[in-house]
From TrEMBL:
Classification via Gene3D superfamilies: MFS general substrate transporter like domains, Multidrug resistance protein D
GO CC terms, sorted: plasma membrane
Protein name listed in UniProt: MFS transporter
CDD domains: MFS_MMR_MDR_like
UniProt source species: Kitasatospora acidiphila
GO biological-process terms attached to the record: response to antibiotic
Record key words, sorted: Antibiotic resistance, Cell membrane, Membrane, Transmembrane, Transmembrane helix, Transport
Length: 487
């Protein structure tokens, strides 16, 4: 017999239980908009460059103009969620992101587009920083939380792949402006139900202290660090520009840590790092996302520059990656974690990712997509085991008061890793390509060789992540025994 609203099951009203899952859908819709925007721009960049007259160097700011404020504001946004209420911050981020998306879609000059992308990044930071914290609060039961985080990770993976496909299709059939305007109906679909479904949270209040000096130091430090990383493609890693700005970023971040150790009400309580799971999960994510995000950008370039795919074909060629990750994250990850423990599931997924990138490191110049590319893209399904498991470990020891800043920290490490991975792997690919060209290789063969080396470096980063996870994320005996009893 089916339950009716108002009945109580396991001590919870049925209507309230459904409301939590509907609230999860709202949070996933907001995340979908942010993830979609992160990849939809990639395929459309050549069209944007042609239409608005970007130089090759200036074009990178279509991505960097978003990424720098996004990374820099995540920690502050997470803390504001704890102080002002995560619902308020989430809704403010949706409104800001939607308004900036409209400006991007109407942009008629390069400067207007970059400025609007900067505002988009700020709105994206507000939405992303508090979403995971709200999920942890909504689902205190470990089994339910695992399923919820799995669904959240599914949306992230599906959104990334959908962005590649949608970006190519919209650019070819309409024009690039629509890759930004498509965010508006998604924002409405998330924002209107959110006002009713998300529980109001008064927050701790600004009197608890937002640590203005700490916020200034970390925001400036992170923005400068990401700017330094993404500008290495123009200035090089050993240039005075990179070294100078890099040292300045490190000084600011070091000053921020000193401030957090002394502040009465810190922006980022250093006690979070006492948890081996929190520290280990963020470190492992830093290595993994560096490899995986760099891979995503470079495999798209490989399909276009070496195999000669168009924008839409590249998007569809990347689709198996997202589908594989999404299917595993939604259907298997939580079940396997309950049955075998988070560490074993994480190591299994990491091992699959190492094999995938190692397979791509042998790509021939005249590759066959079904034989040489598709098997690696399907092995990326390991990401569906890794992503929700890491998110669960990173948030496992966070108190309700710190869940916002813990969520912001997890997203910050992810964003910095994305910028670092693209910069490092792109530099490796470009440097090796130039060397092969100088040695007499033709243009396509040199490009293929550069991409091969970058995939090998990515495999090495994933191998380091595997070792770090094995060493740092050992489970307590009770945590290992519990899944066995549940099974």
């Amino acid at each position: 017999m089916s339950a009716k609203p108002g009945e109580v099951i396991s001590g919870k009203p049925v209507g309230a239980d459904r409301r939590r899952w509907y609230a999860l859908l709202v949070l996933c819709a907001g995340t979908l908009m942010i993830i979609l925007d992160g990849t939809i721009v990639t395929v459309a960049q050549p069209a944007i460059q042609h239409d608005l007259g970007f130089s090759d160097t200036g074009l990178s700011w279509v991505m960097n103009g978003y990424q720098i404020p996004f990374a820099g504001l995540l920690l502050l946004a997470g803390r504001l969620g704890d102080l002002l209420g995560r619902k308020r911050v989430f809704l403010a981020g949706l409104v800001l992101f939607a308004a900036a998306s409209a400006l991007c879609g109407l942009a008629s000059s390069a400067g207007m587009l970059i400025a609007a992308r900067f505002v988009q990044g700020a709105g994206g930071a507000l939405v992303s920083a508090v979403s995971l914290g709200m999920i942890v609060t909504l689902f205190p039961d470990p089994a339910e939380r695992g399923r919820a985080i799995g669904a959240f990770s599914f949306v992230g993976a599906a959104g990334a792949s959908l962005g590649m496909v949608l970006g190519g299709v919209l650019t070819q059939l309409l024009d690039w402006h629509w890759i930004f305007l498509v965010n508006l109906p998604i924002a409405l679909a998330a924002g209107l139900p959110a006002m009713r479904l998300l529980a109001p949270e008064p927050g701790q209040g600004l009197r608890q202290g937002a640590d203005a000096l700490g916020a200034l130091l970390v925001t400036a430090g992170l923005m400068l660090a990401v700017y330094t990383i993404v500008s290495t493609g123009t200035h090089g890693w050993s240039s005075a520009h990179t070294l100078g700005y890099g040292v300045a970023a490190l000084v600011l971040l070091a000053a921020f840590l000193v401030r957090q150790a002394r502040a009465a009400r810190p922006l980022l309580p250093l006690r979070l790092f006492r948890s081996r799971r929190t520290s280990g999960a963020n470190l492992v994510q830093l290595l993994m996302i560096s490899a995986m995000f760099g891979f995503q950008v470079l495999i798209a370039l490989y399909l276009q520059n070496v195999l000669g795919y168009g924008a839409a074909a590249t998007g569809f060629g990347m689709l198996p990656t997202g589908l594989a990750i999404a299917a595993v994250a939604l259907g298997l990850s939580a079940r396997l974690t309950r049955a075998f423990g988070a560490r074993r599931v994480l190591l299994t997924g990491a091992g699959m990712l190492v094999l995938s990138l190692a397979y791509l490191a042998r790509l021939p110049e005249h590759a066959s997509y079904p034989v040489d590319v598709l098997p690696a893209l399907l092995l990326i399904a390991g990401g569906g085991l890794v992503l929700p498991t890491l998110a669960g470990l990173a948030m496992a020891d966070a108190t309700p008061e710190d869940s916002g800043v813990a969520s912001g920290l997890f997203n910050t490490s992810q964003t910095v890793a994305s910028a670092l991975g693209v910069a490092v792997l792109s530099t490796v690919a470009a440097g090796h390509t130039a060397g092969l060209r100088a040695a007499g290789h033709d243009a396509v063969g040199a490009l293929a060789g550069g991409y091969r080396l970058s995939f090998a470096v990515a495999a090495g980063l994933l191998a380091l992540a595997f070792v770090a996870a094995a060493v740092l994320l050992r489970e307590r005996r009770a945590e290992v025994a519990q899944p066995a009893l549940a099974a």
